[in-house]
Design a protein that fits this description.
The protein has helices at 13-51, 106-110, 130-138, 179-197, 207-221, 235-255, 263-341, 345-380, 387-395, 401-408, 429-458, 464-514, 535-560, 580-583, 591-594, 596-599, 612-624, 654-666, 706-709; strands at 4-5, 9-10, 71-81, 86-95, 100-103, 117-119, 125-127, 161-165, 172-175, 713-714, 722-723, 744-745. It is of the alpha+beta class. Among the domains are: 13-48 and 204-309, no CATH class; 71-144 and 151-197, PH-domain like, CATH 2.30.29.30. The strands form three sheets. The protein has an eight-stranded antiparallel β-sheet with strand order 7-8-9-3-4-5-6-12, with helices on both faces. Helix 8 (345-380) runs antiparallel to helix 12 (464-514) and helix 12 (464-514) packs across helix 13 (535-560). It is globular, with a radius of gyration of 28 Å. It holds the Pfam family PH_Niban2. Residues 1-11 have a biased composition (Polar residues). Residues 670-682 have a biased composition (Low complexity). It is a lipid-anchor.
């Protein structure tokens, strides 16, 4: 692992070997924790399946088939090219799994040229000010204070930059021509960050919990308690962040004195070194973690057989161990809770409740407004014939970055003033993003429930007046269900957040007096059960139980007082739609197909007026269009790109960027071989009336066409790497790796 500095040569193989050995040591230590936690997580998962939790049943439906094969956003932006030190106009799109894909220009996308880059934004921060960025970069090196008047590490030609900053990986620089464009792209990129940060699948009942518990245990072994901001992305990304958290400061202390040049040059060199090391760490982490995971998955059937056979004995053994630990540490834990935690729970809860509840209320208001507007459109304009078009737009509401932005913004004022330092909460961003993800889920659940009920109503063949009354009635039903589910989701979020804040604090307080006593309890665990019962985990469960009753009581009192429209636990909403969940078992609703028959003069797809081949062709044409949830509502200069000139002049000024745009407007795009494609092979001849529509409503691909029409996008594991399906674009070969989560130029 040798590090290369541009214009200064290699720092030597000794530095590389030292870094590789340190990385290997950290990974080995962490993976021991992971193997230990895997057995515990497997036992807890199987026990949960048997015993259940008795949680209240959700009233809203949830979408079982993800809204795949969608393009969330597409448009143009300027990107800074570090190799040429030029700003270039790039055509960019965000597929359904929120990887930012950058093409040379729109023509390159149409002609299926591989993209320039695919960016996974997990762990990144979105900066809208060059001063913010320069401050972060200036603090990245010890003793690196730039003198006034010195040139910054980056110059932006407009007043509207957007910078993707990561503490270890490479940075990405973009700029826009107007503040409106900056706001739009900020909302889109923030949605990408929010989604990619949530990289561990929530339906992973064993691997996910085992990994997060191993991360927590490893950091606690280093006396690092509290929330961790870099628990972002998939497992390999998080593991790379964990290594860099420990390796980075050592690398910085060793290499910073050896960097030469002006401050901005030293900063640029350090960014390149850090990114190079991060990529190498990533590759090593990916290989080591993958090998251990494969070994555990091979051993899982044998472990499951032992658990099924000895479930009762394992539970009895664990309860016996817990009783012994409880008798030993409970008095100390209760005193600590009473003196250091209990007095602060109400204020922490109130700080969480206000912005979170405002956000969920905004979700309700946005949903109400969108459905009401749709109903008015049905009455005044389109009638039933236009319902399919309206419903296609509504079905994407939860994934519309701009329409959801007002909901997400409600979480931004979240502060734990005076409590963050006390409870070692490094940042509230963990709680903000979790609440925002829950808002999006509840919005999608409300929309999907509305879709399902409306689809059932359409089977009765209502008139326009009857349909409008039905829409209003269904809206009221869905809002009642939303209010109940919103209360349940928020109460669970408050409990989890309070535990996430207080438990690390308690463990840190109790460690000096309690942790040394834990080793004597190891002899209470039978050797056959040692993979499923760990003393450290049982100790944490006992500590959790000491504070859990106070947290439950605080949330219960807030519900009793009807604060922020929370329902009491005793309020159980009986399911007024007993067959509703059966309706959700059917195929996804294709609103374009559902309402196409009423809008076509010749009848439905099977009518004699329209040949079947023509209908299929129309479906295929619509599916291939590059579409976006976000519509350009302003009138202004379109960011249309053409191939770059061979010898472009410097683009370091706003004047030149405007010149680039002016040439874009005057230049004619090369003739296309067919409509604007979503990753499908080019057609031999253009179809009449199949011109691309940049602002057309978002459409769903027909079943069975996914492999042919798959747009270029990162893999479905939110990895940020490019994949190609059969008949799609050719595979993309990166200059570094094809793994998840590493940002690379192609």
């Amino acid at each position: 692992m040798s590090v290369w500095l541009p214009s200064q040569g290699s720092l030597g193989q000794e530095d590389g070997r030292s870094g590789a050995e340190k990385t290997g040591k950290i990974l080995t230590e962490f993976l021991r924790f992971y193997e230990d936690q895997y057995g515990v997580a497997l036992f807890n998962s199987m026990r949960h399946e048997i015993e259940g939790t008795g949680a209240p049943q959700a009233q809203l439906l949830w979408r079982k088939v993800p809204l795949d094969e969608r393009i969330i956003f597409s448009g143009n932006l300027f990107q800074y090219q570090e190799d040429s030190k030029k700003w270039r106009n790039r055509f960019s799109l965000v597929p359904h799994n929120y990887g930012l894909v950058l093409y040379e220009n729109k023509v390159a996308y149409e002609r299926q040229v591989p993209p320039r880059a695919v960016i996974n934004s997990a762990g990144y921060k979105i900066l809208t000010s060059l001063d913010q960025y320069l401050e972060l970069v200036g603090n990245s090196l010890p003793g690196n204070t730039s003198k006034s008047g010195t040139a910054p590490v980056l110059k932006c030609p407009t007043q509207f930059p957007l910078i993707l900053w990561h503490p270890s990986a490479r940075h990405y620089y973009f700029c826009m021509m107007t503040e409106a464009e900056q706001d739009k792209w900020q909302a889109v990129l923030q949605d990408c960050v929010r989604h990619c940060n949530n990289g561990i699948p929530e339906d992973s009942k064993v691997e996910g919990p085992a990994f997060t518990d191993a991360i927590r245990m490893y950091r606690q072994s280093k006396e690092l308690y509290g929330t961790w901001e870099m628990l972002c992305g998939n497992e390999v990304q998080i593991l790379s962040n964990l290594v860099m958290e420990e390796l980075g400061p050592e690398l910085k202390a060793e290499l910073a004195p050896r960097l030469k040049g002006k401050p901005q040059e030293r900063q640029r060199q350090w960014i390149q070194i850090s990114d190079t090391v991060y990529r190498m760490v990533y590759e090593q982490a990916k290989a080591r973690f993958g090998a251990v995971l494969s070994k555990l998955q091979l051993a899982r059937p044998a472990m499951e057989a032992v658990i099924r056979t000895d479930m009762d004995q394992i539970i009895t053994s664990k309860e016996h161990l817990a009783s012994k630990i409880r008798a030993s540490i409970l008095p100390k834990a209760e005193v600590c809770v009473r003196n250091h935690v209990q007095p602060y729970i109400p204020s922490i809860l109130e700080a969480l409740m206000v912005p979170t509840s405002q956000g969920f209320t905004e979700v309700r208001d946005v949903f109400f407004k969108e459905v009401t507007d749709m109903n008015l459109n049905v009455i005044n304009e389109g009638g039933i014939d236009k319902l399919g078009e309206y419903m296609e737009k509504l079905s994407q509401l939860a994934y519309h970055p701009l329409k959801m932005q007002s909901c997400y913004e409600k979480m931004e004022p979240l502060r734990l003033d005076g409590l963050q330092q006390r409870f070692d909460v490094s940042s509230t961003s963990v709680f903000k993003q979790r609440a925002q993800i829950l808002m999006r889920e509840q919005m999608d659940n409300a929309v999907y429930t509305f879709e399902t009920l409306l689809h059932q109503e359409l089977g009765k063949g209502p008139t326009k007046e009857e349909l409008c009354k039905s829409i209003q009635r269904i809206l009221e039903r869905v809002l009642k269900k939303y209010d109940y589910d919103s209360s349940t989701v928020r109460k669970r979020f408050f409990r989890e957040a309070l535990l996430q804040i207080t438990i690390p604090f308690l463990l840190k307080k109790l460690a000096p007096t309690c942790k040394s006593e834990l080793s004597r309890f190891q002899e209470l665990i039978f050797e056959d059960f040692a993979r499923f019962i760990l003393v450290e985990n049982t100790y944490e469960e006992v500590v959790l139980q000491t504070v859990m009753k106070d947290i439950l009581q605080a949330v219960k009192e807030a519900a009793v007082q009807r604060k922020h429209n929370l329902y009491r636990d005793s309020v159980v909403m009986h399911n007024s739609d007993p067959n509703l969940h059966l309706l959700a078992e059917g195929l996804p609703i294709d609103w374009g197909e559902e309402c196409s028959g009423s809008s076509d003069s010749g009848g439905g797809p099977g009518s004699p007026g329209i040949p079947e081949a023509a209908t299929l062709l129309e479906k295929r044409r619509r599916a291939k269009q590059v579409v976006s949830v976000v519509q350009d509502e302003e009138v202004g200069l379109p960011f249309e790109a053409v191939p770059e000139p061979l010898s472009p002049a410097s683009a370091d000024s706003i004047t030149e960027l405007r010149g680039l745009l002016a040439r874009d407007l005057q230049a004619e795009s090369p003739p296309l071989a067919g409509p604007l494609l979503n990753g499908a092979p080019a057609q031999e001849s253009p179809q009449p009336g199949a011109a691309p529509e940049a602002a057309s409503p978002l459409r769903q691909l027909p079943p069975g066409k996914a492999s042919d029409l798959e747009p270029p996008k990162p893999s479905d594991q939110e990895t940020g790497e490019q994949v190609s399906g059969p008949g799609g674009r050719p595979p993309i070969h990166t200059t570094t790796e094809d793994g998840a989560g590493v940002q690379t130029e192609f």
